[in-house]
Design brief:
This protein is mainly alpha-helical. The protein folds into 2 domains: 3-49, Rubrerythrin, domain 2; 56-403, Citrate Synthase, domain 1. The protein is built from 18 helices and 6 strands. A 3-stranded antiparallel beta sheet has the order 1-2-3. A 3-stranded antiparallel beta sheet has the order 4-5-6. Bound molecules: s-citryldethia Coenzyme A.
C-alpha cells in the first residue's frame, strides 16, 4: 500500500494514500488524531474527500462531468430525464421494459396524499415555492408513516414523482388556480409543464421543444458529486434519519444564492442591469471590487476552473431553442455581453471564473414562462435523483459513520463567573 510521510513537531508519521479510478489521490487521515494528536483544518472542506463514491466524476480543470461513467454530453438531450434519474439511482440505464415500468411507477406515485393537499391551503399566497417544497417533503413521513419498513423503492418513486406535483401545485396556488393532476401518457417533463399551465377550462398541449428543453435542464442538474446540498443529504442521512427528511434538508441547503439559489439571483441581476440602461460593464467592475458586496451571479465554481460543461450545453440549447421558437430576449443579449467581457477580463481570467450552470438556466426557464421564484425548485427536482443516489450509497457503504467533524477551539481559556 502506498504511504506518505508527515513530520509534526519533530516526529515522523506514515499515512496511507488511496487512489481513485481516475488517478485522484487522497491521504487517509482516519487514524490521524489517535496517532498524531492533530486534526486537519479545512473550512468549507475544499480539500477534503468525505467518502468514496461511484456516482459522479468531475474534473474541474478539464471541464469533465460523468454520471456513472457516462459523459454528460452522451446523456443530455439523448435520454429522457426519468431514464437518467434511473441511471443515477440504480447504477445502470434502464432496459426498455424497466424504463416503461419506472415511468409508470413515477406517474402513479405522483399524486399528493389528499390530506397533504390541505397543507397547501395554509401557506400564504406569496409563500416561496422552495419553502413549500422542503416543508411538504419533510411532512411526508407523517402521511406515509411506515417508512422504516416500507420498500425503499416505493419511497424513492414517491419522492421523485411527487416533487414535480408539489412544485406545480405551489405555482397554481400562487395564482389561485385549481390543481391539475398528472397523466400516465405524459413524460416526467411534459407532466410538470402540463400541471403548471393547463387549466380546467383549457387543455395545455406541451410544446415538444419545451418538453425537450426541460428534460435537458433536469438532466444537467441531476448530480454534481459532494456539493453543499448533496453533502447535507449525506450528513443528515448518516444519523439514520429517513430519506424524506434527508431530501428536505438538501432542498434547504440548495436554496442559498451561492448554491442553487444562484439561477434566481442571475435573472434578478440581468433584470437589474437591463433596468440600469443595460450597463453591464458597470456590474463587471462592481464584481471585481471586493468591498462592493456584488458578485457576478452564475459565475465561478469551487471545482470547475474551466468552463462548466453544463453551461456550455445550456448556452447551445438556448441559442437553438430561441432560434426555433423565434424568441428575442434582451436578457440573453445582456448575459452574452457579460460573458464575453468577463472572459476577456484579467480579474476573471486570473481567478479562473467561468459561467456555471446557473448562468444560462434561468433564461431557458423564463422562455418557458416559468416564474423566477420556481427556478431553484426546478434545480431541486433535477437534483433529487442525485441526492437519493448519494443517500443510498452512504447507507450501503461499510465505511459510513455518523458525520461528526471536529474543530480548532479558539475561545476563552477556562474561567469562572464573578459571583
Ligand atoms: C452551484 O458545488 C457545486 O457543484 C455546486 C453546483 C452544483 O451543481 O451543485 O455546481 C451548483 O452552486 C453553482 C454555483 C452557483 N453560485 C453562483 O453562481 C454564485 C456566484 N459564485 C460565487 O459566489 C462563487 O464563485 C462560488 C460560491 C460558486 C464558489 O465559491 P468558492 O469556491 O468559495 O470561491 P471563493 O468565494 O473563495 O472565490 C475565489 C475568489 C475570491 O476572490 P479573492 O478572495 O481570491 O480575492 O474569486 C472571487 C472571490 O471574491 N469570486 C468572484 C465570484 N466568484 C468568486 N468574484 C466575483 N464574482 C463571482 N461570481
Amino acid at each position: 500500500m502506498e504511504t506518505c510521510k508527515l513530520t509534526l513537531r519533530g516526529q515522523e508519521y506514515e499515512l496511507p494514500v488511496i487512489e481513485g479510478t481516475e488517478g485522484e489521490i487522497g491521504i487517509d487521515i482516519r487514524k490521524l488524531k489517535e496517532t498524531t494528536g492533530a486534526l486537519t483544518y479545512d473550512p468549507g472542506y475544499g480539500n477534503t474527500a468525505s467518502c468514496r463514491s461511484s456516482i459522479t466524476y468531475i474534473d474541474g480543470e478539464k471541464g469533465i462531468l460523468r454520471y456513472r461513467g457516462y459523459p454528460i454530453e452522451s446523456l443530455a438531450g439523448k435520454f429522457p430525464f426519468s431514464q437518467v434519474a434511473y441511471l443515477l439511482i440504480y447504477g445502470e440505464l434502464p432496459t426498455p421494459e424497466q424504463a416503461r415500468e419506472w415511468r409508470r411507477e413515477l406517474t402513479l406515485n405522483s399524486f399528493i396524499h389528499q390530506s397533504m393537499v390541505n397543507i397547501f391551503d395554509n401557506f400564504p399566497p406569496n409563500a416561496h415555492p422552495m419553502s413549500i417544497l422542503s416543508s411538504m417533503i419533510a411532512a411526508m413521513p407523517s402521511f406515509y408513516p411506515n417508512y422504516e419498513k416500507e420498500d425503499i423503492n416505493t419511497i424513492i418513486a414517491r419522492i421523485v414523482g411527487q416533487a414535480k406535483t408539489i412544485a406545480a401545485y405551489s405555482y397554481k396556488k400562487s395564482i389561485g388556480e385549481p390543481y391539475i393532476y398528472p397523466r400516465t401518457d405524459h413524460s416526467y417533463s411534459a407532466n410538470f409543464l402540463r400541471m403548471m399551465f393547463a387549466s380546467p377550462a383549457e387543455e395545455y398541449f406541451v410544446p415538444k421543444v419545451f418538453e425537450k428543453a426541460l428534460d435537458l435542464l433536469l438532466i444537467l442538474h441531476v448530480d454534481h458529486e459532494q456539493n453543499c446540498s448533496t453533502s447535507t443529504v449525506r450528513m443528515v442521512g448518516s444519523s439514520m434519519a429517513n430519506l424524506y427528511v434527508s431530501i428536505s434538508a438538501g432542498i434547504s441547503a440548495l436554496w442559498g444564492r451561492l448554491h442553487g439559489g444562484a439561477n434566481e439571483a442571475v435573472l434578478n441581476m440581468l433584470q437589474m442591469i437591463y433596468a440600469d440602461g443595460r450597463n453591464y460593464k458597470k456590474y463587471i467592475e462592481l464584481a471585481k471590487k471586493k468591498d462592493s458586496g456584488f458578485r457576478l451571479m452564475g459565475f465561478g465554481h469551487r471545482v470547475y476552473k474551466n468552463y462548466d460543461p453544463r453551461a456550455k450545453l445550456l448556452k447551445e440549447a438556448v441559442d437553438n431553442i430561441f432560434n426555433e421558437i423565434g424568441i428575442n430576449d434582451p436578457l440573453l443579449e445582456i448575459a452574452k455581453d457579460l460573458e464575453e467581457t468577463a472572459l476577456r477580463d484579467d480579474y476573471f481570467i486570473e481567478k479562473k471564473l467561468y459561467p456555471n450552470i446557473d448562468f444560462y438556466s434561468g433564461i431557458l426557464y423564463r422562455a418557458m414562462n416559468i416564474p423566477t421564484q420556481m427556478f431553484t425548485v426546478l434545480f431541486s427536482i433535477g437534483r433529487i435523483p442525485g441526492w437519493i443516489a448519494h443517500w443510498l450509497e452512504m447507507r450501503n457503504d461499510p465505511e459510513t459513520r455518523i458525520h461528526r467533524p471536529r474543530q480548532i477551539y479558539v475561545g476563552p481559556k477556562e474561567r469562572l463567573p464573578h459571583i
